[in-house]
Amino acid sequence: MKAIFIVFNQALTENVIKMLDRNNIRGFSQWDDVKGRGTEKGEPHMGTHTWPALNSAVMTIVEVSEVEKVLNGVREINEKAEKQGIRAFVWNVESMV
User: Fold this and answer.
1) What is the CATH number of the domain that holds 83?
2) Do residues 59 and 6 make contact, with C-beta atoms less than 8 angstroms apart?
């Protein structure tokens, strides 16, 4: 199993959920009002007067065979809205209950 953690501008929430649905990824947890700053491009998302945007984040646990489908979906969203900001991170799930 793999964990996929996706962080994105809140404006992309609907796109991310639709992408998960298209890939038959049912289970996920979502966090709203996530603050942060990307390492390469874009503006900080801090929820302040100066930087009013905020992020959301989703984490899903999937079979190894599902990872590339989700990452390709994230790439497609990013290509259409690069300045909004979206990133995905994948790591191993050692065990779960």
Assistant:
1) 3.30.70.120
2) yes
